[in-house]
Automatic annotation (TrEMBL):
It comes from Weissella confusa (Lactobacillus confusus). The keyword Hydrolase does not apply. Pfam families: Pyr_redox_2 (PF07992). This is FAD-dependent oxidoreductase. PANTHER family: THIOREDOXIN REDUCTASE 1-RELATED-RELATED. Keywords: Flavoprotein, Oxidoreductase.
Amino acid sequence: MGSKIVAGWTIQPAVERQKFTVSQEMETTVPGVFAVGDVAEYPGKAELIATGFGEVPTAVNSIIKRIYLKFRAMEHAVSELQKSAVQIETPYNIESVEKDEDGSLNVTLAKVREDEKKVLNVDDLMVNYGFTSEMGAFEPRRLPEDVENGLEGQGIHYFLNDVEDFRDHRVLVAGGGDSAVDMSTLLDTVAAEVHLTHRRVILDIAGYVNTTGAKIVKELDDQMRQFQQDLYLDTTVIDVVPNGTEFDITTDKGSFHSKSVIVATGRRKIKSDRNGK
């Protein structure tokens, strides 16, 4: 059963940076507000993910649902990119960034596995290489220091807080995930010129999403349905009571008996006290 996300609700991304307010009522097949566990690098991503894309197979667990929706989100993002005027530069790595006399950036791109380079002159470089977690805090994956050259905040950006800041600018977006693709499409609505560079051939993502994503979900769905054991989906265990050599198990969908109970609900860190206990 899906959930309704009501207009005016505020979605808090995993990174404590900026909250996003849903602008219209949306239906999602994902129970609860799906976006709260996702990192939103730009305004609207949390809302986009919270919307959901299509029906999620019922035999797929919550982690796979996230993967499934990620594929669908990527498919949507690539589709929108192909309709835009974004210039795609692939497969290239960023080799260096230098400040020009007029304040613009000269970004040198090196073609992957080939002896070919090109220089793009842009006003802004938006780096979207995803996030890394250190000591529980999320930080963007940054350019190497010798490449960034101390230019963060002076043309090099890791977050897109307000698309209007880039109106009539020439922008290079570096990255190949759904965020980079979607961000390029978003910037194309206000920027004078948008380039998207990635170390892989970005347009191959569309085919990868359509074939690999659907295949993964279908195979998992089929495998789970072929189990000889009873399969209880979307079920919460309420009580487990010993009864001789068995257990009486009560769930929100009914009761049954079992010889053994295996708890496989994941792991979490438990802070030790000062004595190391």
